[in-house]
Design a protein that fits this description.
It is a single chain. By secondary structure, the protein is mainly β. The protein folds into three domains: 2-149, 5 Propeller (Tachylectin-2, Chain A); 192-351, Jelly Rolls; 359-480, Jelly Rolls. It is built from one helix and 38 strands. The strands form seven sheets. Strands 14, 15, 17, 22, 23, 24, 25 and 27 form an eight-stranded antiparallel beta sheet that branches. The longest helix has 4 residues, at 319-322.
Length: 482
Amino acid sequence: MVIKNGQKINRLQALGRDGQLTGHVINLDWVNARLQYSWAEGPVMCKRNGYYYYFPAGDVTGGQYVLRGRSLTGDSTKWERLGDFFKPVTDDKAGFRRPNHISAPVQLADGTWWTIGQSYEKYNGDDWSGTGRQTSLYPVTWEGDRPWGMAPTILPIRKPELPRSGISWTSVKTDYFDGSELSLNWHFLTKKASASYSLTSRKGWIILAPDSARTHLVQKETDHYYSAVTKVDLSATNDGAKAGIYLTNGNQAVVARLYSGYNNGKKIVFTMDTASRSMPNIFGNVVWLKLERYGHELTGYYSGDGKAWVSLGRPIDAVKLDETQPNFNSWVGTSVGLFAEGKPADFDCFICKDGASPLPAAGYRNYYGTATVNKGKWKTVTNTSLYGGWFMISGVEIGRQSPSSVQVVASSKRKGMLQIWLDDLRDGKLIATIPLNATGNGIYKTFSKQLKNVIGQHDIFVRYPAGVPQSIFVKSIQFSAK
């Protein structure tokens, strides 16, 4: 058993066949000598070709290292320090900095080796460290008996040959609060908040009941582009009553709130840091709220029916929330969800990737044969493969009732088509083939196709036709209600 305790303690503890500790301990405290690997955190091990491999992580600045030995011994002369585990970055496609805290490398049935590690997204100066430690799969290659983890990259790699699990891509999950128990997708940032809700007092709603402070219900933020939507019922009669959408870092020091509240009358308010937007609430106690994220920009909207939206004005810059934060709060990452202050508030639903709102193509989570192209403030996605590329937007909430059509905003240099698939390109469902006319270079138009019986939350795949690369540019996709 591999043991780590504090900065200095690195040990291997022998176990009996019954799984209990024996008296035999191998002392590896020398791994930390002269702070060569600082804390030598989270060590893991594997064995291959008669070698034992010991993988300690570096300190908070990152780094992952590897040692090897022919036998399990505490004699430092019997172990060889091989240095860095991950290959050095040699191009401009490094999207993650200094990955570490890997799992023990494992070999699959096809002979390939893999490990799981964590890192922070940072590419071309665009810092998303505030998202928290992000997990990735890394291929492991061997040069003789020397293991190497693949250099971190934003480019796609071939996935491991594993059986399909049926587990959907990681995204914030929609909740209509119909059950008697809270979904395990939710979490709390304080112990007190975990006891401040009810799913049974009003069927189909969740009631957040704060004491004198704020209470919340959140999920880990998983995307850089989305429209979070909720329907809230609050009778705000004083400045302390607030309820709506909540976006926060782990210690709740950096917070964005879009809420129904009161300030010389009922108001809809959108705030973060020193920025604030507000408008009179013309709809009453029950109101729809929508927080739209487009990269580092946040925009607030409200509505009386969840269909016709009123903007609260220009976007608010969220860079302070998204970039590296002090006291290593970035380890925890950003959460998004609901909050209430001052008095109880009822929420009918929470949707993070609203399909009835335009879904930016640049918000894809997986792709092949495509590239993002900047078109002024907006970004578009184009095909780069002769064989027809694709991109996938995860966790899109299409709704409880089937929309009448799916629409794409695109520019096409010639006639073509786009296919829209649910959940997978091989085992999923083709729901629409959208014909495109030539629009002219840089001219964007809306193209649509009728839909039938498409509901729920799905991963949406947009597939380009085979042919000439960079002939179709997609800006957004949207599911239009009847």
